[in-house]
């Protein structure tokens, strides 16, 4: 059985598990270490090394990161420590673990996992996966092929960016009820519909487990369905990228 280590770096936790890429599922228990604060490159690299060690020092690792990641370099820092901008994360983690490490945007990893093994399996048109969490992450596919680093959570809605207006963090912070939040989400998805004419939206992120409370309120032209891999998507997608 082909197994790789996937690691999901988030604002509060850094999680890893061995992944069976044939099944698209975990092949071990998940191990979580709280994200160090401040989450500087050096401290995060130490946690990545600890996770690699925990899982028997594999030679290939895939790692998500909540920012633009191009050729292993982190190029933005909307919700993470600003010292990540311009950091060669792939090199840093490779040096820390002795493994070959692929680093990829968190929403892109989740999107690939859903397209290969979850809600997007067999979907051939234009599919947009959104992760609703601290920020809004997006992954755009055409005929199953990813257009990486789309960052559509930063589109402007009213005077704010979409993630400042409609992320799950804002729902919580402003104590919005599900209907009020759904009204904001509807504006956001309508904007995406206008720009991309998608065939399908997939909604991921932790809050997607409550999809029955907000998705039915959304009036859109495009079908919108919850993600299936939920909090396993980042790790599974990360592992998939490590094999490229
Ligand atoms: C970042 C994206 C990330 C998303 C979800 C946004 O603030 O700019 O790169 O995918 O949050 O974590």
Please name the defining characteristics of this protein.
binds beta-D-glucopyranose, 244 residues, alpha/beta, 2 domains, 32% helix, single chain, 16 strands, globular, Nucleotidyltransferase, domain 5
Describe the structure.
With 244 residues, the chain is α/β, with parallel strands linked by helices. The protein has two domains: 3-106 and 233-242, Nucleotidyltransferase, domain 5 (2-Layer Sandwich); 119-227, Nucleotidyltransferase, domain 5 (2-Layer Sandwich). Helix content is 32%, strand content 28%. The chain has eight helices and 16 strands. Strands 1, 2, 3, 4, 5 and 9 form a six-stranded mixed beta sheet that branches. Strands 12-11-10-15-16 form a five-stranded mixed beta sheet. Strands 6-7-8 form a three-stranded antiparallel beta sheet. A hairpin with a 2-residue loop joins strand 6 and strand 7. Helix 1 packs across helix 2 (89-97) and helix 3 packs across helix 8. The longest helix is centred in the last third of the chain and has 19 residues, at 178-196. The protein is globular, with a radius of gyration of 17 Å. The model has no long low-confidence stretch (mean pLDDT 96). Beta-D-glucopyranose binds at residues 66-68, 76, 78-79, 105-107, 131, 133, 135, 137, 151, 153, 163.
């Amino acid at each position: 059985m082909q197994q790789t280590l996937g690691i999901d770096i988030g604002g509060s936790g850094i999680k890893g598990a061995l992944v069976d890429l044939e099944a698209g599922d975990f092949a071990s228990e998940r191990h979580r270490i709280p994200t160090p604060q401040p989450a500087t490159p050096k401290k995060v690299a130490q946690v990545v090394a600890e996770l690699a060690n925990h899982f028997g020092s594999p030679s290939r690792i895939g790692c998500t990161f909540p920012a633009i990641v191009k050729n292993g370099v982190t190029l933005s820092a909307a919700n993470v420590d600003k010292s990540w901008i311009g950091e060669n994360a792939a090199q840093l983690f490779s040096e820390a673990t002795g493994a070959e490490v692929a680093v990829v945007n968190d929403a892109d990893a989740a999107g690939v996992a859903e397209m290969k093994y979850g809600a997007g399996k067999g979907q051939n048109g234009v599919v947009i996966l959104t992760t609703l969490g601290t920020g809004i992450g997006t992954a755009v596919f055409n005929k199953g092929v990813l257009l990486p680093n789309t960052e559509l959570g930063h589109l402007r809605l009213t005077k704010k960016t979409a993630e400042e207006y409609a992320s799950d963090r804002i729902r919580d912070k402003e104590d919005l009820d599900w209907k009020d939040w759904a009204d904001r989400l509807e504006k956001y998805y309508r904007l995406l519909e206008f720009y991309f004419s998608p065939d399908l939206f997939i909604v991921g992120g932790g809050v997607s487990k409550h999809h029955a409370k907000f998705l039915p309120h959304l009036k859109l032209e495009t079908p919108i369905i919850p993600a299936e891999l939920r909090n396993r998507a980042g790790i599974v997608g990360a592992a998939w990228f490590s094999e490229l």
